[in-house]
Design goal:
Low-confidence stretches: 128-132, 139-144, 350-362
Pfam families: CheW (PF01584), H-kinase_dim (PF02895), HATPase_c (PF02518), Hpt (PF01627)
CATH class of the largest domain: Alpha Beta
CATH architecture of the largest domain: 2-Layer Sandwich
InterPro entries: Bact_Chemotaxis_CheA, CheA-like_dim, CheA-like_homodim_sf, CheW-like_dom_sf, CheW-lke_dom, HATPase_C_sf, HATPase_dom, His_kinase_dom
Number of helices: 18
Helix content: 40-55%
CATH superfamily of the largest domain: Histidine kinase-like ATPase, C-terminal domain
Number of strands: 18
Radius of gyration: 31 Å
Mean pLDDT: 80
Structural class: alpha+beta
Strand order of the largest sheet: 10-14-15-13-12-11
Shape: flat
GO molecular function, one term: phosphorelay sensor kinase activity
Strand content: 15-25%
Largest sheet: 6 strands, mixed
GO biological process, one term: chemotaxis
Keywords: ATP-binding, Chemotaxis, Kinase, Nucleotide-binding, Phosphoprotein, Transferase, Two-component regulatory system
Amino acid sequence: MKSREQEYKEIFIAEALEYFDALNRHISDLEKRPQEDKLLAEIFRLLHNLKANAKAIGYLRISDVSHKLETAFSLIRNKELQFSDEIVTVLFEGVDLLGELIHNIDNENYGEPDPVLLRNLDIIVDNLSDSTIELAKVQRYNPTKNLSLSELVYIQIKKLDHLLNLVGELVIDRDRILSISRELGNDELKSVSSHLNRITEELQYSIMDARLVSIGSLFNKFPRIVRDIAIAEKKEVDLALSGHDIQIDRNILQIITDSLLHLVRNAITHGIEKPEQREKKGKSRTGKLSLVARNDRENVQIQLSDDGNGIDLVQVRKAIVERNFLSTAAVEHLPPTEVLSYLFEPGFSLAKEVTEFSGRGVGLDVVKNAVDAIGGRIWVESEKGLGTTFILQLPTSIAVKGALLFEVDSIFYAIPLIHTEQVVAMEVSELHEVGGVLVADVFGETITVVYLHELLNVKEREMNLGDKSRLKGLVQNIIIVSYNNRKLGLIVDKLYRQQDIVVKPLSKPLDAIDLYGGVTLLGSGNVCLVLDVPAVTRYFISRRQLVAAE
């Protein structure tokens, strides 16, 4: 994996070589049309940007030569220096020197720039009158110099999207061919399919790697944002950033940008107190805000923490009842993690009292939807008076997902691993009916369990979520899934294996069914529906409430 410095250097070189080519082109045009102000302005802009970029990354010789050339063109633009043949020669040679410096950026043996040339640049820059300029004898620009092209190219992200989609199709066909070769037992076909497997896998990961960007490209925008919001709110905030080098798919980073901005704004506006309030609480006047990225197995985790007000669980429980999400009795037994999960419910925070005590609910359902859309997870941890932490768990790629395959009623399904907590086998006697639903004790935790066939296929009026008699066999395979800090056990008929799948969107009219996040094709040729765990969880809760109401 590339370091942040290496990535920045490659970007700098690619841009610098583009500037170099553009400068040669524009100066040649300016020689023909010396009065064209637009050309002068563009040359000046290119040199100014090159100077600033080179200085920022530590290439001071490039920055110095760019600065001299920038000053020379500033004099020409201000009519203080005539664009004569002699001057043009020196300027072209200065641009040539920039090209040499850029091409030899890693060459430790590359010497100092030609002192005759630098003297002429200094003469042009330091003298404001043509009459005082006596340039040293110089060589004319040599058009026979070797040409070279940059080793880096820029490519539109939509082209990479198209490539990844094609690879997705290839992965599906690869799995099919591998399955056929195993069935036929043909040694030659096995050899070819094995080779195809290696090539496809390498191609898949190469394209996925080409789409990766450093999270630092987003994180580096936040110091200014935090400063501006803090000033507007009359607060003092220190921002700590960590994990700049963590890599993630560019599209995923784009999708969560607005969500992260919303969370940062909320943390400053509603979380961190004003300086005088913090002093009264015994805190430092300056609030602490941290934005951390880290790798988490096959995913990327982004954590936003503040040391502000925290969230009052008592008030949240009260709001849950007032908004008719749960009864008073049910809310009393909710663990803190589930209480906080209601902050992400649509419409939860419309009433003013919620934003007055926490300020955490405004728009959090929109943030949740954005994270759900890319197959990620988000949850919140908080302690009243001490602060709040939002955790986003994101996939590194949105095209290929790790999934658990299983079967219900002779239909193949897949659940993304990011929502899968564990798989357990339990005897029917270990399942108990409580409040009209089945529950099970899983490693000391009471979890609601539902037979997936019944949830997906049985009509509301015929549904009996607590009826064990509908289950097949004495031992049940249960997949524990997690969404919004709520765990749900899904009883399935058969468990298969974990596998990377390429998820394709459903065609109309099936795309209107929220329970399914897409479809994939297995190596056996069977169509496999991909369950949308957030939708399944929400659907179960609404069905349970409907049945309870009847």
